[in-house]
User: Fold this.
Amino acid sequence: MNDSKVGGMQLKGLEELNIRIKLFLLLLLSAGTVCSLALGVYLRHHTGESIYLFLNWDMFLAWVPAGLALLLDMVFVYFKQPAAVRRLLLIVLGLMWLFFYPNSAYLITDMLHPFNYYHPVYGSFLIDIEFWYHLFLFFSAAMIGLFLGIYSLYSVQTLVSQAFGRIVGWVFAVGVLLLSSLGIFIGRFIRWNSWDVLSEPLTILKDTHFILTNAGQLRLLIPFTSIIFVLTLLTYSFVYSFTYLKRS
Assistant:
């Protein structure tokens, strides 16, 4: 693509990128993250056990694609010369964002942990208020992860749409959500992490080939990834539609 054309898109897209509003949204999500982590601290203090410490790390990973999306905005808007370096930065940051993107919606799957870790003292956990504290912790984390994923995908889709057109932007977004659903499955059941793409790429390819060709794995993979894909696509499309309400 002609670099002068991209530069023109930069100037044209400054208002649409609107980094200040994005920073405000990230501030709101930061406040939600702090509240969620504070509830985890309360539960550890209340129970006297070191429970759910892994959620701190999972939430940090959920924030990584949001930070990378913001860096992509900064490079796209403010880094103009030299063009080759700028293009290389966009490619590297874009690939990093893609590899880490599943970590945001991955928090949805963490909602299973209260049912594994919590055991009611009296009767059913449904009427035990302490169980609801545990469930609210993971529900809030799941919502934050979902919104972080929506934020970063919308941000990157905007860049793709400006560079290649709206249709390509939507094909890109749907493709990312589909790949992310597969990535969440691999993370939850095969237990690979995003950085393993660099440290163990051949092993990941081997495992991915196995789960895509094994009938037993497919019986779990297809419904699981379908549910995650539909959930993330519907929520993303719903939030995205509000941008059209604003324009109208």
